[in-house]
Amino acid sequence: MIGGTWEPAPAARWEDAYLSGNGSHGAMVYGDPADDRVIVNHHGLVRPNGSESVRPPELADRLGRLQDALLDGDVTAAEEFGAGRPLVWVQPFHPAFQTRIRRGRGLHEAVAGYRREVDFTTGEVSASYEAWHSRVFVSRSDDVVVQHVTDLALSAEVWLDPRLPGAPAGLAVGRSTVLTPDGARLALRVGYPDGGTAYTGVTVARVDGGTVSVAGDGIRVEGARSLTLTTRVRRGAGSPDAGALWADLPDGGYAALLARHRTAHRAAYGRASLTLRDAAGERELPGSELLRRPKSPALLERLFAAGRYHLLSASGTLPPRLTGLWTGDWDTAWSGAFTTNANLNLQISSSAVAALPEVGEAHAALVYRQLPDWRDNARAIFGARGIVAPSHTDGESGHTRHFQRAYPLHLWTAGADWLLQPLLEHAEVATGTPDARLTGALVEAALFYEDFLTREDPDGQLAVVPSYSPENRPANASWGTVNATMDIAAARHALTTAAAHAPDHPSAGHWRALAGRLPGYLVNADGALAEWAWPGLEETYDHRHLSHLYPVWPLDEINPYDTPEEAAAAHRALELRGSENDSAHGHLHHALIAARLRDPARVAGALDAVLGGDFFHDSLMSAHYPGRDVYNADAAHTLPSAVVESLVQSTPGRLVLLPAPLAAYPTGELRGLRTRFGAGLDLSWSEAGATAVLRPSRDVRVDLRTGDAFALTETRAGGPSASLELTAGVDRVLTLGPR
């Protein structure tokens, strides 16, 4: 079942509930015929906690003293920069409420004839048992959660239930119920304990046949043929008006609403697919059964499909949070925030090449909305023009507020370049050139470095100081230090990229000169690319983050083709890296870098750790740790990217086919990819060879490379590479054979 997944029992836990979403609203569907619950989520639901007004502290006047101390060898000097401020988490993401259609005690077990499924191609979640059928989707066209239940002589209580785990005791809950000729209108207003902000949810219930009466907190339906609920949520200061929300809900029955939504969803989801040989025999198994077969090709197929589905469903007004767009608990781990120093970029890493521009647009919405806050960070903390991104955001504020001795995330200066890189990749795929808005942001990133890079090392090269490698520290120094490799890479990339795309800017020449004065990367005594390019700083290898390999992935500054010696040092760093606490994002980050370095065994090992580590719930949404510990979207959303990178890589001037193919999946087909030089690509491969079909949208010349196992048939005797001249609108078929 490549286009969906199914289970023979309702969800007993919210983590196992099937998911639907349109990038703003999300739904978590239990599928219980006796107590049909749907948890309603919305990207804008964050609980005020006092952090919303926090601004970055004015530290710039102390920056010079800190730089002097670090350059003079005081390895703990940064611990006092910003000290004394309480750790303030961003506003935590939370669920709205659950719609409930209750007829009796919950089922919670597998019974003959029961089936619960989600159709990835339409975004519709359905469940059936005997005469009862329930269908739920979140509309992309009408921005509502739609639920339709059919059952002869349906009788049930229907209400909006805010009683979800972790809900604070101080919530102020108000309700209204209004009967209408065809059913009822239910409203729920929830005021946060601070008293200044609230959110409102409204549901229109349309009943076919039978009677409706007010009962308890909702309505009682008797003898109906079917019931349709249409739900929407809004958050704002004061009380969002329920009347306006009711008036704005769309008309039409379930079929009409689904038809409008399905067109938009199908067009997006259906652009790319993965098919593997030997998967057919297990494709019809329930997802929970497949998860017990981690070596099954059908499992990788389904998780690839589910990953694209969940990523698309979680991306719209904002990109995916740590939990995507869903949670069933008010006590969401790490506030359900956007953690930008690794997790967000990993989750959206497949969006450009796996044909989901909607995800890129959602990421752009987050970035561009917060640029004024990023300017405040640069000015207040570093006394600089330009932009500095925070390591955490709730989607509202982009101000830095995470000040902590052990995690001094306010010292991280690479964030703007890191977060702009996915937008640059989308531009390369679409047109080859950033638009004016992205170019402006790239210029602002360079302006920060123009002001910030004022100190030199003893050899006269620029020093990045203070510097921080998320979320690690040298074994013999504190967290804030000098010349973290990620910071050097980000500075060089920001300066050269801005100069390339804004060549007429008065500072373009100066940016290139600054980039040329940045230090090179350091290879340590172990032969590994060092995490800090500063003499005397010792490595801490056992860590989940791989920030220092930013030049390998996603930047492609270090690669086996142009910089083989540095690539070998990066590979050695990857070999020495531990997995620390087995975080899913660490394993998949490892896989992405290993693929760039053409190490299929290491890619396979990282994927095996995730597929065999009990990371996935029955919903096929993932967890942060093994044993399904802490609901988290990192593995679910990043896995498709790891698969793609093992098979196809591209830059604006290079195509790499089968760089790190996985031995466990020797035959398959990957369709609908996009390359960063503007061509669509379909790839099929087997032990006997491979075929790639390129469909260029613009004229371009690219360097073709192949992995160790295959070579282009017409150039096999002449070497591992070839130059391709591609013409817009003219397909090009490439045939590879065993090397």
UniProtKB/TrEMBL annotation:
What is the protein name for this chain?
Glycoside hydrolase N-terminal domain-containing protein
What would be an example GO MF term here?
A: hydrolase activity
Q: Which Pfam families match?
A: Glyco_hyd_65N_2, Glyco_hydro_95_cat
Would the keyword Hydrolase be found if you checked this record's keyword annotation? yes
Q: Which residues form the Glycosyl hydrolase family 95 catalytic domain?
A: 254-647
User: Which residue intervals define the domain Glycosyl hydrolase family 95 N-terminal in the entry?
Assistant: 6-233
Kindly state which keywords UniProt assigns to this record, in alphabetical order: Hydrolase
